[in-house]
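Journal club side-thread
Mid-discussion, someone asked how the predicted structure for our own chain would compare to the paper's figures. Pasting it here so we can look after the session.
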Amino acid sequence: MKRLLFMILTFTAFALFTACSGGNEPATEQQAKTEKAVTPDPTEFTWYKDWDAGMAAAKKENKPVIVDFYADWCKFCIKMDKETFTAPEIKKRLSNDWIAIKIDTEDNSKTATFDGKTMNHQELVRHFGVTGFPTYHFIDKTSKPIYPYPGYVPKETFGYILDYFRDEIYTKNIKINDYINSKS
């Protein structure tokens, strides 16, 4: 009797496992088509959370870097994430022209190497002279820091800021606010 009960339980468990696993086949034709037709969205970009990986990607892709120094408790950092960085035109500019790095200024478990020094995030904040959040630092294609831009920026203005640094307008002795005003 015990042997029969054991065999029934084993068979039932096997049947349930097999039925629930679903195999490797798509559930529907639509799902199969969707999986085959996935193409990257040009308005999507990835924030690097690892400084060194982001800087390596910038060097490899020969792109400038935008660094978002933020804190979880910062209401304007959250507002930038919700309103400015989600705007399709901003996402497209970042995806096409930039390597974007987000630095959680309170996470000291991570390190970053810059100017031959390895430092935790708070040391990196001090190295870049960040005094408030959010602050965006722009770094050129040669890994040279260009300029910090502090505070919340609406998407309309932020696009001009990205263009200003991407096109290296700062090298022409045109002040950023003059450039923004000429575009508005």
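Post-session note: DSSP finds eight helices and seven strands in the chain.
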